[in-house]
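Bug #77: duplicate submission created two jobs. Keeping one. Sequence:
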Amino acid sequence: MGSFAEEEIASQPACWRRAAALAAEAADEFPPPGARVAIAGCGTSLFIGQAMAVLREGAGHGETDAFAASEVPVGRRYDAVVALSRSGTTTEVLGALDALGAGAGATVAITADGRSPVAARAGRAVVLDFADERSVVQTRFATTALALVRAVLGERLEDAAADAERALEDPLPEGGRAVAFLGTGWRVGLAREAALKVREAAGLASEAHPALEYRHGPISAAGSGTLVWALGPVPDDLAADVRAAGAALERSARDPMAELVRVQRFAVREALAAGRDPDRPPNLTRSVVLT
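Kept job's structure:
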C-alpha cells in the first residue's frame, strides 16, 4: 500500500486543471489589479506565497509582498491581505490577518477548509477543499493554490498539467548527501519549497538559492555528493561551474511546477529508503496551533 503523499502527488495534474476551470469564478475574490497586496503564510505556504507575489507583480497587477506570517511588518499599510493556509488554523497566520488586516480594504483566505478560523476571520475565502491532503507534508494543496493564481493572472495551465503527467513517470536523479535547489524569478519560491520538501520528508540536507547567487558562497560546499537541481532555466556558464565543482546537475525544460512534482517524488523515495514515514515526518504536525 502506498503512502497518502504518493496518491496526492499523483493527483496534481487533475487538481491544476480543476483550479484552472475555477479561475474565472474565483478572480472576483482576489485583490483587483492595482491593489497593493501582502501575502502571509508559514512553511510551504510562505514559499508558495513568495512565488505568487512575484507572478502578480510580473503580470502588472501591482506591488505585492510576501512574508512569513510571524514576521509581517505591522506598521506597513496594504490595500489587501491574502492569508494562505491549508488547514486554516495556523496561529501565526491568524495573527498576521489581525496585524495587517485592520488597515486593509480587503482580506482573503486561500485554504482547504471553508469552516476554519482563517476562513472565518478573512472577509473572503477561496476554498480548495478538493486539494486537501491526509499527509502532513504538503504537495497538491500548495501547487493547486499556485495554479489557481497563475490561471487568474491569465496563464494557460494545460501545458503545466501535461508536463506534470510526464513528471509522474520520468526517472528521478540519484540521491546525494545534500541537495541544492536553484531558481530565478517566481521560481525562487518553488526552489525554497523544493528544499523544504526534501528536508522534511526525507531528512536530507537541502538548501535553495536564487540561481546566480549560488556562486556567491554556497558553491564552495558543492562536491561529488551534491545534487544541484534547477527549477527552470539556469545559464550555461553556471551549469559548467556546478559540474566543475564535481556536483551533479539536474535541469529540464518542464514547467517549474511540474519539476516540483519530480522533487516531491524524489523526497518520498528518499524518505522510504531511509525508513521514514513520508506522511508523518518526525516532529511535524499538520498545523502549528499555539496556546
